[in-house]
């Protein structure tokens, strides 16, 4: 089984494309090469495949890099399933993971939520989608400053609050406050729960 994230940038027409697209490309490049592992298409849509264990963390990394740009957000549909055909271009690959993700993104556009998951198991879907709806009430309201801090923590889990304070030229207590406001410890627990539920598939 693999995970496929299909997403689109919210408010992309009101932002400097070169800035966000460069940041997104650099992020996705950390996890594999285009266009086999990821691809940006139709201007502001993207698709990316990864290991199922890492999908929640990758989702948060994408969310935080986009939310660190002014007025931007991102909608993402997580599909878990098989890859029955692997092409040189991810957008030409196929299987239940791709179908689940692609169809779900269309549903998200109509229901107003910014993230959801679809697997082969209705019970797992129900549990994880309730979790995602609740947690997104936090994620969707991250400020640019909070998003930057969260992104650094996700991408470098060994980084200290002192390192972050130096990087962003703020006090260590300000870093601590931002992490508390973002419920970072709860985010880590949520990632562990997410991995556990997906392992049951």
Give a structural overview.
53% of the residues lie in helices and 16% in strands. It is α+β, with helices and mostly antiparallel strands and 201 residues long. The model has no long low-confidence stretch (mean pLDDT 95). The chain is globular, with a radius of gyration of 16 Å. Helix 4 runs antiparallel to helix 8 and helix 5 crosses helix 7 (172-181). The chain has eight helices and five strands, in the order E-H-E-E-H-E-H-E-H-H-H-H-H. A five-stranded mixed β-sheet has the order 2-3-1-4-5, with helices on both faces.
SSE topology:
Layout: E1 2-10, H1 17-29, E2 38-41, E3 45-50, H2 55-67, E4 73-81, H3 96-111, E5 115-118, H4 122-139, H5 144-155, H6 161-168, H7 172-181, H8 184-199
Parallel strand pairs: 4-5
Antiparallel strand pairs: 1-3, 1-4, 2-3
Helix pairs in contact: 1-2, 2-5, 4-8, 5-7, 6-7
């Amino acid at each position: 089984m693999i995970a496929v994230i299909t997403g689109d940038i919210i408010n992309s027409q009101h932002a400097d494309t070169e800035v966000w697209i460069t940041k997104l490309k650099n992020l996705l490049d950390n996890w594999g090469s285009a266009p086999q592992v990821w691809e940006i298409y139709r201007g502001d849509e993207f698709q990316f495949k990864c290991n199922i264990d890492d999908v929640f963390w990758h989702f948060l990394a994408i969310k935080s890099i986009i939310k660190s740009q002014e007025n931007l957000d991102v909608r993402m549909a997580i599909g878990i399933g098989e890859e029955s055909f692997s092409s040189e271009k991810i957008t030409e690959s196929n299987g239940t993971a791709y179908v689940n993700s692609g169809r779900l993104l269309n549903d998200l556009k109509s229901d107003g939520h910014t993230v959801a998951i679809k697997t082969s198991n209705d019970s797992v879907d129900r549990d994880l989608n309730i979790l995602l709806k609740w947690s997104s009430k936090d994620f969707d309201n991250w400020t640019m400053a909070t998003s930057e801090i969260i992104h650094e923590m996700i991408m470098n889990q060994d980084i200290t609050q002192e390192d972050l304070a130096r990087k962003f030229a703020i006090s260590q207590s300000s870093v601590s406050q931002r992490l508390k406001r973002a419920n970072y410890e709860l985010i880590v627990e949520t990632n562990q729960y997410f991995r556990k539920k997906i392992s049951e598939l």
